[in-house]
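Bug: token stream looks shifted between consecutive jobs. Job 1:
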Amino acid sequence: MTNRSASRDLKDIKSKVGRMNEAIGEAEKQSVYSWLRSTDPSKRYHQACELYESDTGDWVFRTPEWKAWVAGRSRCVWIHGIPGAGKTILASHIIDTLKRMCRQGERTACVYYYCYFGNRQDEAAPLLKWVIDRLCREADVVPQCLYQLFRYGAEPSLADLLHALEAILQEFQTVYLVVDALDESTPRVDTLRVMRDLATDARFAKIRVLATSRQYIDIENAMSQFSSPISMRNKWLDEDIHLFIKTQLSTNRKLQRWPTDLQLAALEGLSAKANGM
């Protein structure tokens, strides 16, 4: 296919999308969005934001894996750590940082999804539905293939949803997707397959995926094939913990009264025993 014919095909696709959206009223768009939404993760995102401590979490932005991911040299980053390490709160901080980045760029979006064991579901379909919903609202566009699925009325397959995601991506240059707590998807076979497709399939080259989870063997076996891993036990986090404890010792009125040698001992002892938490 020549560049000219490829360009013509892309224009045809956008023209069809445009004609479809002219035919869909606002009320009908809202019906499509309501049909898409099965799980809303925004509550968990807001809860995590409330727990975020200022000036923490910036360590991740100093890692070579993050820098390669933001620059587009890597399509997927996987952050793993033990329970209580702060992965969910870190994810909220990353999301807020990406949102600020997206406001400075054109046709760029940040979408998040929080898996949760209380949902008692494989999060693959709810994840895709939420991402498609967010991107459609961002672009104010309902692709024809998605509208046809809505009109058909049946539960869409994962293949259907991936096709709809491919269609709405035509409206964007880059999409950052943050998925927290893969381990809380129960079961998670399909969720891990979707992660693989989003990170490796050429159809989704515009998407950059960042996922967090515990280091379970099935997740590690899957994610290690296509992601750049970042452990929550690392020198950058150790530096942040050391700085946080030092700040607390110097600003807390009660702790300021401690003798210098006791403060130093507390600083070294707590930093060493933090265990990445």
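Job 2, same session, no restart:
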Amino acid sequence: MNTNELIRKDRKHLWHPFTQMQDWQVDDFPVIEKGKGCYLIDTQGRRYLDGVSSLWCNVHGHRVKELDRAIEKQLKKISHTTFLGLTHPTAIELAEKLIAIAPKGLSRVFYSDSGSEAVEIALKIAFQYWAQKGRPEKKKFARLVNAYHGDTLGAVSVGGIDLFHEIYKPLLFETFAIPSPYCYRWETTRDPEKVKNEALSAMEKVLREHHHEIAALVMEPLMQGAAGMIDQPAGYISRARELTRKYNTLLIFDEVATGFGRTGKMFAADHENVTPDILTVAKGLTGGYLPLAATLTTEEVYSAFLGRHEEFKAFFHGHTYTANPLACAVAIANLELFEKQKTLEKLQPKIQLIKKRLEDFYSLKCVGDIRQCGVMVGIELVRDKATQEPFESREKIGVRVIELARRKGAILRPLGPVIVLMPPLGMTEKELNKLLDITYESIKEVTE
């Protein structure tokens, strides 16, 4: 089937996520057929650098032989078996590997299929934990403004991006919003230390006044991804841990986006040696090969679910493909590659390269702010640097930049006026330079 026919059938039958399908009927888009290394290849043979890791999940690149072989090897044994009342070797081995690399004190692994579901599970665990500890009044959640934790209803309830979530408000449960330390757009100051202290004061106020009814604080540590790559000042997450302990509230870290090396360490929590009560992971868990997620908890949280059969204290949650053996097998191979290839060690000079190259972007007329944590980058475009005046939505500034970047050979995605870069950890320095060149040129040509 030729490319034009594929596009015609796509437009006739498909409904794409986060996409205005009326525009889709007339906009150009590539049909990706293959991948090799850090490149995506369309049906016409054009190659594109995968500048956002295929939505933040690819780690070592595409068609990695060790990951391909892991799936092939498992496929010869069994592709799927239920995890309800049964177990299998790959799930056991992966859980052991996850606990070994997770923040110290996390000891239990509950598998699921996506980041949204991992968060949904974390919320249900926190809710049920307090009910079974004799504190059923602790049933609400605190969350950061601008948060994004997925698209299922529980995850949306603890989200905070009105663009995505406003229409669903009648379906959602009530939460307590805490200002996120968004230095670039903080009202009183842009000094990171002052922003941190003011944001933490707001956090403490919410916890002090409502801890008797709050089950958990849910947050993305170090970097709020879908909010536009909003970074948090040093010391913020460790102080959040102190405050949740002080006010007897569980702490849930959503590391779906930040986990598996994206921030320069295996987990964002590692930067400040913080152990949350519950940790969610997905995306990079399988190296970007198959859907798999996990929710990790401490033994203290897990123990609240133990009891006699007739007490019905078990965690009543699970899905058909929980702990899918193929996904677990490739996740094991992914973690082994981290160790074998010294991925995190080799990543450090790449992070510095990105940092140095990004300094040049401030010379562009419409680049207002640049936020980086590891290989997670957000470049915020504004109409006026002096006033920080934003572009209007109808101008589609981010969309225009990424469309030009695509024509130049790189796949990017905007978050409104924020251009996001999140390359695979395995991208070479030469490829990174090319990606940054394309991004710089695209922003310059569209805005100047």
